[in-house]
């Protein structure tokens, strides 16, 4: 197994753990979709020896649609229609078009998390580390896509760096939840 495959596998394992710690969060389904995307990618590439880029567009669309679990039921028909359209687009477009669509959706996700971060800062006069981390996570995704689309010569090194940072982000998010739960227990006792 090559080093980039090992780092990718560690990243998938890390991000598979994250949803378990955010079960009661409004962002649970967002993390669940990320996990499903990672696991389906590994299954398709390992078992069927195919590259699953066809799934990129539907999965990033779903991750965007699932950012706030409390709005899913209200928008379920719109989400379903968008999923059908994104699947058709994913199947019938080139890899470059798919990557541009993924980039656009990642930028939208960035703005949603940035909006949450800014609104908490304005309303409560504090910086929410969860949203700050998610904004940073989305920036990394955007940079990774730009590097891929621009076919930078340092692509593999950039992939290593971004995946290592994303592993650290996943670990930080789990640690953040554990710390918050422990702090709540201390306050209650």
Properties at a glance:
single chain; 189 residues; mainly alpha
In the residues, how many domains can be counted?
1
Kindly state the percentage of residues in helix. over 70%
Largest sheet: none
Backbone structural class: mainly alpha
Percent of residues in β-strands: under 5%
Shape designation: globular
Tally of contiguous helical segments: 7
**Strand segment tally:** 0
Q: Please trace the helix and strand order, writing H or E for each element.
A: HHHHHHH
* Distance linking N and C termini: 49 Å
Mean pLDDT: 88
Computed over alpha carbons, the radius of gyration is 17 Å
Residue stretches low in confidence (pLDDT < 50, at least 5 long) are none
Could you explain how this protein is built, in words?
The chain is built from 7 helices and no strands. The chain has one domain. It is mainly α. The protein starts with a helix and ends with a helix. It is globular.
Question: What topology emerges from the helices and strands here?
Answer:
Elements: H1 3-21, H2 28-47, H3 56-65, H4 76-91, H5 95-124, H6 129-149, H7 155-188
Helix pairs in contact: 1-2, 1-7, 2-3, 3-4, 3-5, 5-6, 6-7
């Amino acid at each position: 197994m090559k080093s980039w495959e090992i780092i990718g596998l560690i990243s998938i394992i890390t991000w598979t753990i994250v949803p378990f710690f955010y079960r009661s969060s409004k962002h649970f389904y967002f993390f669940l979709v990320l996990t499903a995307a990672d696991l389906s990618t590994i299954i398709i590439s390992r078992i069927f020896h195919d590259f699953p880029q066809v799934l990129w567009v539907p999965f990033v669309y779903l991750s965007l649609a699932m950012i706030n679990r409390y709005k899913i039921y209200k928008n379920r028909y719109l989400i379903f229609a968008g999923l059908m359209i994104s699947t058709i687009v994913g199947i019938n477009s080139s890899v470059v078009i798919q990557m541009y669509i993924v980039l656009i959706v990642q930028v939208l996700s960035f703005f949603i998390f940035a909006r949450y971060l800014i609104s908490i800062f304005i309303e409560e006069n504090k910086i929410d580390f969860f949203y700050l981390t998610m904004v940073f996570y989305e920036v990394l995704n955007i940079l990774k896509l730009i590097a891929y689309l621009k076919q930078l010569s340092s692509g593999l090194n950039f992939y290593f760096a971004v995946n290592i940072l994303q592993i650290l982000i996943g670990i930080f998010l789990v640690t953040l939840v554990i710390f918050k739960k422990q702090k709540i227990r201390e306050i209650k006792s």
